Amino acid sequence: MKTYFKVLSLLVLLFILQSALGQVKLPLLVSDGMVLQRDTDLKIWGWADANEKLTINFNNKTYNAQAGKEGKWEVMIVPLNAGGPYNMTISGSNQITIKNIIVGDVWVCSGQSNMEYPMNRVKEKYADVIAQSNNPNIRQFFVSQKYNFKTPQEDLQSGSWESVNSETILHFTAVGYFFAKTLYEKYKVPIGLINASLGGSPAQAWISENALKEFPDYLQTAEKFKDDNYIREIQTKDKAVSDEWYGRLNQLDKGLAEKKWFDVNYIPDGWLTMNVPGYWADYELGNINGVIWFRNEFNVPASMIGKPAKLRLGRIVDADTVYINGEIAGTTSYQYPRRNYELLANMLKTGKNIIVIRVINNSGRGGFVLDKPYEITAAGQTIDLKGKWQYQLGATMEPLPGQTFVQWQPIGLYNAMIAPLLNYKIKGVIWYQGESNTGKPQEYQKLFSTLIRDWRQKWNQGDFPFLYVQLANFMQAKNEPSEIGWAMLREAQLKTLSVPNTAMTVITDIGEWNDIHPLNKEDVGKRLALAAQRFAYNDKTVVYSGPIYQSMKIEGNKIIITFTNIGGGLVAKGGELNYFAIAGTDKKFVWANAKIENDKIVVWNDKITNPVAVRYAWADNPQGANLYNKEDLPASSFRTDE
User: Fold this and answer.
1) pLDDT at 22 (0 to 100)
2) Where are the alpha helices (DSSP H) in 496-536?
3) Helix (H) or strand (E) holding 22
4) Which of 169, 376, 441, 586 would suit a FRET pair with 235, their CA atoms being 20 to 30 Å apart?
């Protein structure tokens, strides 16, 4: 009898396996809610049993397909006008119905964290936009953030289409959403966003193995990561080092000992004081790594009690755990997110309250980033937390050794996040990336140009529009002209305009010196949409860019600069032109005078009689650079020398 049931179970299992093998299967992109590209032949593809015949019914037409020996099938759908919603039925050994399909324009949104940056992270700034975002004609597919070094993948591991509303919008790329919103408002054509982005990723991670042959060092690195054992060894080692470092840190931390420093009854005898925001390297402790505890007292009026309250602590380098009156109010494990903690209703009390922050710094300068809000808000009232705080050393550690981020290695993201998209017809690409390549700006023009050509070749749609964002202004502004990696990376982006059908959006006027993730994502999206109107929608009347350097001419002690993309004319926004520098034959740059004459810029310094070169906005943070066109679009930074 036991043998009978074993045989029966085996037969049932074989039947299930055979049924599963014969099932028609679709890629995740081809699913409910998808946006199909209008005005072009469309490919619908998938998998089935070998030689299986299929019937596809869509928009009152019937299409036939047959799977090949490997079980792959595809069918071409005739071009469609914008519209919908439609259903599509695919019939073989089983039947699949794809619902709520719309036809419009599909844009791939790719790059690193500033493209990935979701609306959830800017929900305070754009609360009204979020509340009014319901629009079934703007949709996003979030590509699962995976890597693969061995082979280009045929499908994604997860993902689905979502229409935008006040809840789903929080998952949307913020730049992508404002881009889509702007285009939809003008053209009333549905917009689909395929969000294939990953924070921290360098350009080489998004390039195919074949295209990366131009960069032997990166190709050699990619080859190493094809070995799963190599990856496991790295990840195991990194985890062991990190676990050991943090474990030892917690054991050494005096603030977590018997007398816990976050306890409301603890008396902070002998604690030092420093200004928050600020960095403890500027105070008695110097530049050390480990744990520093901070403590402050503040008074809360009765009118704020029992109301929804928010604690804002700017940004903290690197990690923090915040206690209010002895209870955890929030925690963040790395330095980049802005600290916005929702406080429980019973956490604050009338009168004196105590806030304690445990800050872990694993390398570099630790502390509280300047020029950020440090406050508690409730019931329309604000308690300012800036000022003198007490602080004490909890534990001293050596810097945490650097980690190997496997997901950022060459070709890995292309294989896992771009290759599965290549059958899906698109309108174009918007790209925001470059921060992770500023260490080697001299190679970026070639690297980025290779990426664009690679994607266009693989998509096989010709030179589709490739619209990208030049790096924002970032870091402390400097008083003197200098050689800067971020300016050189921007130059590489500027030179990439030589690649056909590309456009660059300049945003050196809307960054934040103290945050690599500026909150103003609306203007970024809108400026990208201007470029799309020109290059994707062929509206030649649109001024899509600020002034772009074209040429120079030396006349006596002056240099005359000409530009393209002057629009309605050049303007100096907010006063006289600034951030121009000039150099003589010694090639030492000094600040220069500059003025607009006949939509050209005349640059000079009375102390330089034989000028040879000019630079504009040549800095990490060219704060105050103010050359625009009359359409209020800023000029790109540039240099006339090499």
Assistant:
1) 61
2) 522-535
3) helix 2-22
4) 441
Query: Which stretches within 148-299 are classed as H helix?
Result: 174-187, 216-224, 228-252
Residue 392 confidence (pLDDT) above 50: yes
Long-range contacts of 201-204 (CB under 8 A, 24+ apart): 201/111, 201/112, 201/407, 201/408, 201/413, 201/433, 201/436, 202/112, 202/408, 202/433, 202/436, 202/437, 203/433, 203/434, 203/436, 203/437, 203/444, 203/447, 203/448, 203/451, 204/410, 204/411, 204/447
Three-state secondary structure call for residue 310: strand
pLDDT digits (tens, 9 = 90+) for 239-285: 999 999 999 999 999 999 989 999 999 999 999 999 999 999 999 88
Rg (CA), the chain: 29
Indicate the range of 79-88, 417-426, 470-479, 559-568 predicted with least confidence.
Answer: 470-479
Number of H helices, E strands in the chain: 10, 36
State the Cα torsion 328-333-335-337 to the nearest 10°: -70
Nearest to 581 by CA among 597, 596, 603: 603
Strand partners, 141: 161, 194
Proportion of the chain above pLDDT 70, given as a percent: 96
What's the CA gap between 77 and 38, in Å, rounded?
11
* Residue 296 one-letter amino acid: N
Cβ proximity of 374 and 234 under 8 Å: no
Determine the Cα angle at 137 with ends 135 and 140, to 5°: 90
Q: What is the DSSP letter of 635?
A: P
pLDDT in tens, 37-54: 999 999 999 999 999 999
Q: How far is CA 258 from CA 254, 266, 456, in A?
A: 8, 11, 62
Say whether 562 sits in a helix, a strand or coil: strand
pLDDT at 494 over 60: yes
Non-local (6+) Cβ contacts of 421 within 8 A are 29, 108, 143, 194, 196
Domains and CATH numbers, the chain: 252-397 (2.60.120.260), 548-639 (no CATH)
pLDDT of residue 43: 97
**Separation of alpha carbons 544 and 501, rounded Å:** 13
Beta strands in 333-372 (DSSP E): 340-343, 351-361, 367-368
Higher pLDDT, 12 or 242: 242
589, 619 Cβ separation under 8 angstroms: no
Q: Cβ–Cβ contacts within 10 Å for residue 303, how many?
A: 12
Strands 95-111 and 428-432: parallel
- Which of 615, 625, 640 shows the shortest CA–CA distance to 482? 615
Three-state SS string over 453-502 comes to HHHHHHHCCCCCCEEEECCCCCCCCCCCCCCCHHHHHHHHHHHHHHCCCE
Q: Give CA 542 to chain center in angstroms.
A: 27
pLDDT reported for residue 425: 98
* DSSP code for 213: G
C-alpha span between 111 and 202 (Å, rounded):
8
> According to the model, what pLDDT value does residue 39 have?
98
As a whole number, the mean pLDDT across the chain is 95
Distance of alpha carbon 31 from alpha carbon 565, whole angstroms: 42
pLDDT tens profile 209-231: 999 999 999 999 999 999 999 99
Evaluate if residue 25 carries a pLDDT over 70: yes
